[in-house]
Amino acid sequence: MKTNLCLLTILCFTVVGSVQAQQLIEGQVNDLRTGQPIAGVNINLLGSELGTTTDANGLFTLNIPSFPAALQISHIGYRSSTLELSSPTDTFQLVFLVSKVNVLEEVVVSSSSEATPLSDERECSILDFEITDQHLYWIEHYGTFSDKYLVKADLEGQKLDSFRLQKMRKVQGLYRSCNQVVYLQTQSKVYEIGSSEGELDLVDFVSVDTFENFIKPCKLLQDNSIYYLFSSSSGMIKKVSRYDLASSSAELLKTIADERHLAQLREDVGYMRSGQRVSSMEANNFVENGIYRHHQQDSDFLLQVYYKSKVPVYLYGISNEVVLVNNPEQRIEFYDVNELIKTVAIEYPTDKKWLKRVLWDAKTKSLYTLFKNTKGIQVHRVDLQSGQTMPVFQVDTNPGQYEEIEIQNDYIYFLKDGGKNQSRNELLKQRLN
Questions:
Q1: Which of 29, 170, 330, 399 minimizes the number of CB atoms within 10 Å of its CB?
Q2: What contacts 173, CB < 8 A, 6 or more positions away?
Q3: What pLDDT, on the 0 to 100 scale, is given for residue 286?
Q4: CA angle 312-320-326, nearest 5°?
């Protein structure tokens, strides 16, 4: 089976303000794959006869008389795209176009770089890792009955320090908070990772409830605002809130709800609660016990599997804008502090091959998402202006490892099963195409 896949192009705008609502837009259209400018791209202001084309260097200028406005961007070799401008803005913008090139549905993406091992699977296995602006943290262990070690390294994998997690049981993983603090999660406590007398140490801890309700919901620090993402009703209601540090005030920015499943949840909530009540009940009658256990199993399935949020929401920051990747409503929303200024429809398929994971490269301000295929995991770059994607990288790892992938400064960090020793995970780093 064949489908149309477009070559991605990038459209860079600089917006210069003029009198009243008019603005002169200057831009350049480039081919994302080759990096070369594209001549002859049509830039038309919808609803008017105004328009222009890019020159030999891919450059153009166009005066916008009023807002909101929409630009249609088209080329004979590409599918048309529309850029919506709700108000005058000086934000640097990117647009991807999809070309009319027939390729196989299973796109093959090769990499020109080699994966660099940051750990040795012959010696230890990596349980989890996290990245900050300057450091890598990971948990390693050397056997089933041995203690685990917390390791701090530079971004090249060079170990700087390590800390023995002596007799610490039920270690669950690492978590990087919105203020770049890394936490070690266990079943009973969550520890802040820091330094004591210049050495790596666990400097403080909070309860699991405090971590889940106050630390984990914090998703973004932007200027004088903190943005939180709270979930309720088994994750089917998500609320994005902004806390203003200057005025110590909070406001609701957005509510995202799965109304269809919420209606079903309200109908089943009594059944689920009764299932929880009978979980510890036992009767002398074998048949009654079977009914209790069956009820309990149904209730557990509804609580733990069926009524769980199936599509995630993400918050990121670009310059002075907040980017809300609203997967449930299949769109990307842009906010200026608390005002919605633009929306873009998400064009990537949310089928069974989509791994429901979105990644953000804070250094390059690039958005990615993940799909599984026969060779492992395929990374697609998402254009923030069109919502369209293009495959840019193939990760040679088990699709089950999709939660253990991070991208920073055009490098991808991931865990991979350790070859013949499948019980051990290796941490690798590789440059994106």
A1: 170
A2: 127, 128, 139, 185
A3: 61
A4: 15
Segments in 160-246 forming alpha helices (H): 208-210
Listed residue (404, 393, 405) closest to 432, CA to CA: 393
Rounded to whole angstroms, the Cα distance separating 403 from 400 reads 8
- Supply the pLDDT for residue 23: 80
Q: How far, in Å, are 139, 142, 164, 179, 424 from residue 146 at the CA level?
A: 13, 6, 10, 32, 14
Q: Please give the pLDDT value at position 285.
A: 63
Which residue from 114, 116, 115, 154 is spatially nearest to 138, judged by alpha carbons?
A: 154
Point out the residues of the chain with pLDDT beneath 70.
Answer: 1-21, 30-36, 78, 88-112, 144-145, 261-262, 265-310, 350, 352, 418-423, 433
Residue reference for tokens 């995991």: 377
Q: In what order do the strands lie in the sheet with 339-345?
A: 313-318, 321-326, 331-336, 339-345
Helices (H), 91-239: 208-210
Kindly tell me the burial class for residue 172, based on how many C-beta atoms sit within 10 Å of its own C-beta (0-12, 13-18, 19 or more): middle
Tell me what pLDDT residue 325 has: 93
Tens of pLDDT along 207-221? 999 999 999 999 999
Q: 3-class secondary structure for 316-360? A: EEECCEEEEEECCCCEEEEEECCEEEEEEECCCCCCCCEEEEEEE
Output the pLDDT for position 136.
Answer: 95
Buried b / exposed e over 99-132, threshold 16 CB at 10 Å, is beeeeeeeeebebeeebeebbebeebbbbbbbbe
Phi-psi region of 67 (alpha: psi -120 to 50; beta: other; left: phi over 0): beta
Percent of the chain with pLDDT over 70: 73
Angle at 233 between CA 232 and CA 238, to 5 degrees: 40
What was the pLDDT predicted at 312?
86
Is residue 426 within 8 A of residue 157, CB to CB? The reply is no
Which positions ≥6 away from 217 have C-beta within 8 Å? 228, 229, 230, 231
